[in-house]
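User: Could you go from structure to sequence for me? I need the amino acid at each position, not a summary. Structure tokens:
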């Protein structure tokens, strides 16, 4: 197997990347614009005013959020800016209004659009999503909910040491972005919170996620169509639904996913470990050149799974087969315990069988016994010790 080169990304290098050294830095404090760290006063206008000045500056700019709790409604930080080095340093906590309806109809609580060279250092984002989760779980008519932090059509983004708490919907989303570096991110939400994916990446390239811990009610990391060149390393997931590529193939014409590496990850009590899933319907999508390496499973319901018959509620896709082509997927040094008898399940498309699956040094047990593997329309090879016995 060809080993991919580990990205040369370490914390000191991150700070070199985000601290401009050749120009004077304009320093702004949200309290200078009327922000109050009391958790009660609406500080939305203060944040927007600080961003407006930072974006209009031709010089690198730093926005500082001091200690305390800042109440903020939904905000859009709009580019394109006159400089490509805006650092937002947060020592405090950003809190959403207690009434979930206030931000619940917005796409995002904090949205960055068309920005280049934005860095967020530290801080807690507390979206107070529990009220909306309860509404959804009750079956009532509720707002769809806001993503806590989103970047769209942006590039050269750095997020370090940020904590996202109790998002209404997804915690952090990158859509249409290039060159994203994340490190030391913590995501926390209840294990039964609906649709609270930790980090979602789609239509984006060159994304690195390091040293991050995610506890949530949906996918810890979800990878959507059009994601290429992703590297995830030292990830801890649980509770949650694991790291998922997909769901893919919802649309007939869809960008593919390729060059994805998950290295040194731990899954604790999750619904899935490493998963690829696609809708059971026609599509020209694909997923290829995927590596899952050095992964520990602890009481995971579905440690290794490819599901190409995803059809929630049996709506719009019964009696169809997935058009998504899955190829060249490597599982190397995957070990630990399964919470179910079938620890490895490859349920691939009958029209486009999975190809090039490689199992290398896999050891998964169920209740101290040998687990089982299940294969449908899957082809590949195994090497080294592989337990459960490969069905490829």
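Assistant: Here is the amino acid at each position, in order:
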């Amino acid at each position: 197997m060809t080993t991919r080169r580990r990205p040369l990304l370490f914390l000191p290098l991150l700070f070199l990347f985000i601290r401009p050294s050749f120009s004077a830095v304009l320093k702004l404090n949200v309290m200078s614009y009327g922000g109050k760290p009391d958790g009660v006063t609406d500080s939305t206008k203060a944040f927007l005013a600080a961003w407006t000045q930072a974006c209009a500056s031709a010089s690198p700019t730093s926005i500082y959020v001091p200690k305390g709790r800042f109440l903020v409604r939904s905000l859009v930080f709009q580019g394109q800016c006159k400089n490509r080095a805006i650092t937002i340093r947060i020592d405090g906590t950003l809190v959403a209004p207690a009434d979930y309806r206030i931000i619940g109809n917005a796409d995002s609580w904090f949205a960055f659009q068309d920005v280049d060279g934005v860095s967020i250092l530290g801080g807690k984002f507390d979206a107070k999503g529990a009220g909306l989760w309860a509404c959804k779980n009750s079956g009532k008519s509720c707002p769809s909910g806001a993503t806590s932090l989103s970047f769209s059509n942006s590039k050269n983004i750095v997020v370090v040491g940020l904590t996202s708490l109790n998002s209404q919907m997804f915690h952090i989303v990158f859509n249409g972005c290039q060159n994203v570096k994340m490190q030391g991110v913590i995501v926390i939400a209840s294990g039964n919170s609906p649709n609270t994916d930790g980090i979602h990446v789609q239509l984006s390239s060159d994304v690195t996620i390091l040293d991050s811990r995610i506890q949530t009610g949906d996918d810890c990391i979800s990878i959507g169509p059009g994601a290429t060149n992703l590297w995830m390393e030292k990830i801890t997931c649980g509770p949650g639904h694991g790291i998922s590529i997909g769901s893919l193939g919802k649309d007939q014409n869809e960008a593919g996913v390729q060059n994805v590496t998950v290295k040194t990850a731990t899954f604790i009590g999750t619904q899935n470990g490493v998963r690829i899933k696609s809708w059971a319907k026609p599509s020209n999508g694909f997923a290829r050149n995927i590596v899952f390496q050095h992964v520990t499973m602890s009481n995971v319901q579905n440690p290794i799974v490819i599901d190409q018959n995803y059809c929630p509620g049996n709506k719009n896709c019964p009696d169809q087969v997935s058009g998504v082509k899955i190829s060249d997927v490597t599982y190397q040094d995957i070990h630990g315990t399964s919470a179910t008898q079938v620890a490895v399940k490859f349920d691939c498309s009958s029209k486009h069988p999975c190809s090039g699956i490689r199992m290398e040094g896999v050891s998964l047990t169920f209740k101290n016994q040998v687990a089982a593997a299940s294969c449908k329309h899957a082809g590949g090879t195994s090497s080294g010790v592989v337990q459960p016995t490969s069905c490829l």
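One structural detail worth keeping in mind: The mean pLDDT is 94.
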